[in-house]
UniProtKB/TrEMBL annotation:
Residues 37-391 form the Aminotransferase class V domain. Keywords: Pyridoxal phosphate. This is Aminotransferase class V domain-containing protein. InterPro entries: Aminotrans_V_dom, PyrdxlP-dep_Trfase, PyrdxlP-dep_Trfase_major, PyrdxlP-dep_Trfase_small. Coiled coil: none annotated.
Length: 401
């Protein structure tokens, strides 16, 4: 079976010709780093060429630099349900979350409430901050399989105490590809005066967002994953009432001593925006290409594309489940729409990952989470039914199903 057979179909049916991915690979791992469409990558390169053609003019706030950064914020804010004053571009979600986490004034005994499904880099960030401040990280267990919103909300709220200062949740989890129904937990945290910090690494372009309406205090998400912007593009959102709490990890041109008091930055934006955006010499081309990624999605009716991908991802997961007899980690509504962690029988996960690549050219994550052995499937507009057939057949062969 040729896994690329359907790639000869019209672009309206499959968008593989518009991507730069290696045609020899069966790429089922969009969730890790994304994949940038050719037109968006070309826009990214145009910004880089503009930078190199006249670096002094490019970085001059009076000759368009500030306006270019703001234009990207305006375009993205419209897709996130907020305004340009509430977001700022960062290189990745981990950086955005570190800016917030390391700025919070925590004291000994303060509790950070989180779940057992969080991304390891952020678990390390909280451990680092807890060691410095004397705060305590408290982890709640999310019941699996996750079948009802109430089960998630009950577990999280049960972990809240009078010492809870921060609620930290993934919106879509990395290890288990679950779409957490965070809204009720966030609302309860706000009612109790608990700050909410949300890891949205996988959400922009994957699920609709309305950040202002959601009521979160801090939210960071990647643009290079499901929004399909170039690598190095992400955002940090901070609710206006909380922006005075945030300082950059690096103090540079956009910071002023009195900016927090006045709210004003030296480059015509708020202190929050200027202090984070104006960080000296760096290549912002990936961030400046975010509007092109948004336009690409609109031009190709990505709502319809995403729905086809959602159906294909879940149908493939159910095919594997029928072979293994292992139940999914959640009901379909709590699985990330285009990404699903599929349980497989106990196996050496590194061996399975390597064999899938060596024998079938399948690029897909395989890992262990608690007592679950998981193959995390991502389906994007360039993937095909034939590739799903190949994955199912490969797992059947390697696992002797």
């Amino acid at each position: 079976m040729d896994p690329h057979a359907e790639r000869a179909f019209p672009v309206s049916e499959n968008l593989a010709p518009l991507f730069l991915l290696d045609r020899e690979a069966v790429f089922l791992n969009h969730g890790s780093y994304g994949a940038c469409p050719r037109p968006v990558f070309e826009a990214y390169q145009r910004w880089q060429r503009k930078l190199e053609s006249q670096p002094v003019a490019f970085f001059d706030p009076k000759r368009g630099y500030t306006d270019n950064l703001r234009n990207a914020r305006v375009a993205l804010a419209g897709a996130l349900g907020t305004t340009a004053e509430n977001i700022v571009g960062v290189t990745n979600a981990t950086t955005g979350l570190n800016i917030v986490i390391q700025a919070l004034k925590l004291a000994p005994g303060d509790e950070i409430l989180t779940t057992d499904h969080e991304y390891s880099a952020l678990e390390k960030t909280w451990s680092y901050v807890a060691a410095r401040t004397g705060a305590v990280v408290k982890t709640v267990t999310v019941p699996l399989p996750l079948m009802r919103e109430a089960d998630f909300t009950k577990a999280v709220i049960a972990g809240m105490t009078e010492r809870t200062r921060v609620l930290f949740l993934s919106h879509i989890t990395s290890p288990t590809a679950l779409l957490f129904p965070i809204e009720q937990a966030v609302a309860e945290a706000r009612r109790r005066g608990i700050m909410t910090v949300i890891d949205g690494a996988h959400t922009p372009g994957h699920v609709p967002l309305a950040l202002d309406a959601m009521g979160v205090d801090f939210y960071s998400g990647n643009c290079h994953k499901w929004l399909m912007a170039p690598k190095g593009s992400a955002f940090l959102y901070v609710r206006p009432e909380m922006q005075h709490l945030v300082d950059p990890l690096v103090i540079s041109h956009g910071w002023t001593a009195d900016g927090k008091e006045t709210g004003a930055g030296p480059f015509g934006n708020s202190h929050f925006v200027d202090s984070l955006e104006m960080q000296g010499t760096r290549d912002p081309s990936a961030w400046l290409a975010v509007p092109d990624a948004i336009a690409f999605r609109a031009a190709h009716d990505w709502t319809e594309v995403a729905e086809r991908c959602r159906e294909l991802a879940w149908r493939t997961a159910m095919r594997v489940a029928a072979l293994t007899g292992l139940a999914p980690l959640s009901a379909a509504e709590f699985s990330a729409p285009q990404m699903v962690a599929i349980p497989v029988p106990p196996v050496d996960t590194m061996w399975l990952h390597t064999e899938l690549w060596k024998r079938f050219n399948i690029e897909i994550p395989v890992h262990r989470f608690q007592n679950h052995h998981l193959v995390r499937l991502s389906v994007q507009g360039y993937n095909t039914e034939a590739e799903m057939d190949l994955l199912v057949d490969a797992l059947k062969t390697l696992l002797k199903l």
